[in-house]
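Your task:
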Amino acid sequence: MNISKLNLFTKETDASATEKGFHFQKLKTLKSWLENRIQEKDEDIFCDYEEDIFQRDIYAGIAKFRQIKLYSTNFSFSKEEIKKSIAHFFMLFVKGNYLFDEVTFLFETNSGIARETRGNDAGLLLEWYKNQDNMSKELLEKCRLKVKVILDEYINEVYENRMDSISKSDLQTAKIIYDQLSDETWSRFIKSIKWQFDEIDQVHAIPKIVAEIETLISQLPLPIDKSKRTTYISVLHYEIAQKSLNPDEESSKITNQLLDILLLGTGDEDHQWYADTLHKWKHVEKVNQFNIGVFFELISAVRYCRWEMGKTAHLEIWLPILIQYIEHPDIIVSCKRKAIYEFLFLLLSPNLEDGSNIYDFEGQEELIRFYFENIDYRLSLSSIEEDITLMQLLEVQILNGTVELTLEDLKGWKINILNTIDQQLLTTTSIDDRCQLLELKGSFHYHTENQRPLKDRMRQGLDYYRQIIPLLPETHSYSITKLSEIMNQILEQCIKAGRSDEELEEVEVFLNEIEEHAKKTSNQSTSAQTLADRAAAYVEKPSVKNFLKALECLHRAKELFQLKDTKENYIIVMLGLSEVYSILGLNIAAKQYALAGVWACFHFGEATALNRISDSYAYVFRADYNQGAWISALDDFRQYIKVRIEFKSDAMNIEADAVYRNILIELAVILICSPVLYPELSVFIENQKKELGWIYTEELPPLLLPLERKFSNTEEMKKILRGKITGVPLSDLGQEREILFKSMNIDWLIKFKNTAQLNAIGEEFSATLQIVLSEIKASGKDFKFRSKSVKIKILESAGYSEIMRPDPDNTDWWTAGIPVFESTDQQKMRLHYAFVGGNVTTLLMENSFLYREEFNILIKYLYENRKLADKIQSMNIYQKLYFNLLKPEDFNGSQRQYFSKPTLDNDYYLLMNTLKDF
């Protein structure tokens, strides 16, 4: 039964919206766009697509339709907008365009859920909302019945109205299909609907989201002037508006790349936006209605004028309009403060002829009092910076006698500002906010106490600035660049003013301290390239010693190449590390760095980086192939071929592309050998061939025929495999996954349940163990290991308490529990790896003849002298790198855990005895 026929019942929805609602939708879209860029999430956003905001991550197979509503009243099932949205979502659900995606339909509003009254079923909507991620069968059934009532009414209405306009038979067929929809289909639809009720008054919704957008812009990983946040809001807001008007699907799309282009290289477009906005506003004589979206467009234009259009006479246009907004009876306090700030700032704009101020603060005392007496009505933490700036300007005006206020008036306002900063410092748990608050406090003391000697103000300000420096390694969004620029400007002003050498030295010393955190790009990249070249030279002279030296060079180069202009080199080094670990037979460590390469390619988002994605996937495939994790390798190949087609401009050619040729050869080996080694896989492999499509029918035949002849003798095949791979073929089949490798003359066996999550956890432990063992070997230290065989069982734990210990059920085995890791908190990431590393350390210590004190000294040497911690963690937590490549549902698609464990003859297990060692 094809439910896509139900699309016949689609009817036009009322797409018209108030200007305010349209602004709200654009701002919500802008917020999502910024969040995607900050999180480096490769998701396309389509503006006004299917009458929604449509977000799609092709690689993750995730699609989301968002209905965004700005309302002053609350919602229930009796609300027409809820009914329309459910019907609209249903038509999209049955359309059939997104069968291979995990689709979500989100109803998103500033408002809340109404109180339960007779017939409105608000209580059911509230219950659905609160339990939408974990719906019970009873709740699902209640929601199904309610939704079906709504849709029955909708379908019947369309059925009657369209009987004459569509062929009767098609419509009747569609109606029959609808009536026969299964409970499972209804449940899927209901579970795909999500609700978001922000419960924010309509009047505060837009100011709140604007403040959130300003904060997000300050977190963008781009070399832009973060103080010009409102200008960037306006540019991006304008782009969204233009995209929303474009009927072409592709042309309505906004991407991370587009955001970068707009913010980094669109000066002309900025001017075009300003010209269009100026043209719209220059004839405005009266502001009749206060509209928050329109207001912030004005504020953005005023700021753009102030920053970028200094040599124009546009002040006479903007000042009268700002006055109208300040005096408007419907303006909210936070917006009035914003308008006053911009108005007062514009008053101090310089005369184009002689540089003097055209206006001053005379006569503006009432506005100034309103601004500072309502200081708690700010939109964001960064607004405190505006308070400090205005206070600084006001103090000068008072000293010049151009405003009828006194320094005593300022005293109370200053105390309020300082108390706000101190209170935030006491309560914040964010390192980024703490750094910003320390910068604000330093700026407060330096800029707003002009009665004190400059030397004293400077020292007090620098004392707070210096508290930022030790926090910088833990920050995510805070950047000290802006402070550095400000201090450089202050230094230049002090030099021009002929300040004392002692005062100049105070600033110079601080700038030097900051510069220690700003790496010198040219010297750094040169040193990194030298190390990479040296590593290549070591690899060309094969020996265990040289391979270990190559690893050290590449690890050092990796740290130095983390610069904007050397990101492609950084990826190349990551893949180099993967290759060397693979040569040493440490395939899981090799996989970790290949996965990190994939992550870097996607999240750097540059053309040169994208060109390396398929190479990175090829290294992941090779690591799994060499380890004998052939089912995983088949998953890897699917990812490889997809990105190879999409991100490389050159056509795939076996002769010209060595990476492509080698991966096809290894794929052919898997397809030929798997059913021979394990006949139970025959049907599975045949299905894999069908899924490969043209790859199997067109590309593989020239490789398959000679390999089939070569492997016609099973014994010969096993002999060849023993010389080519370092693990046991098909070791990722069965209820338990096994990872086998040899190192330090020890056979290591790691075992865990063959689930997606435990594969990520088990490989995370194995990669860490392999990296530690390689560092032990490279250090030349004798750890005096006593065992010839070490067996470890890895479990999934709820926390960090199940440390490495002998298995109580089998003394030949060790066991440890490692939890699932999902946080983005850097401190938690470090603690997680410390725990994993601690388990490895405990395992090694218990298998060493050294006394604990001797052992700990050697381990400390690895961490302190060889930077072991930096080598263990690459780009992100292994579990996240793993699921960036393969989603749990894709892992489960092969049903590998439901096959029995291969039981082959003794020759098969001889592979364990031929594992590479170094």
The first strand starts at residue 44 and ends at 49. The CA atoms of residues 775 and 862 lie 7 Å apart. Residues 137-162 form the longest helix (26 residues).
